[in-house]
Amino acid sequence: MSTNQVQIFDTTLRDGEQVPGCKLNTKEKLIIAEQLDNLGVDVIEAGFPVSSPGDFKSVEEISKLIKNATVCGLTRAHKNDIDVAAQSLIYAKRPRIHTGIGTSDSHIIHKFNSTPEKIIERAIGAVKYAKTFVEDVEFYAEDAGRTDNEYLARVCEAVIKAGATVLNIPDTTGYCLPEEYGAKMKYLKENVKGIDDVILSCHCHNDLGLATANAIAGITNGARQIECTINGIGERAGNTALEEVVMILKQHPYLNLDTNINTQMLFATSKMVQEHMGMVVQPNKAVVGDNAFAHSSGIHQDGVIKNRETYEIMDPADVGVTESSIVLTARSGRAALAYRAKNIGYELTKNQLDNIYPEFLKFADVKKEILDDDIHQLMEISNA
Ligand code: KIV
Ligand code: ZN
Question: Which domains does the chain have, with CATH numbers?
Answer without folding.
Answer: 7-277 (3.20.20.70), 294-383 (no CATH)
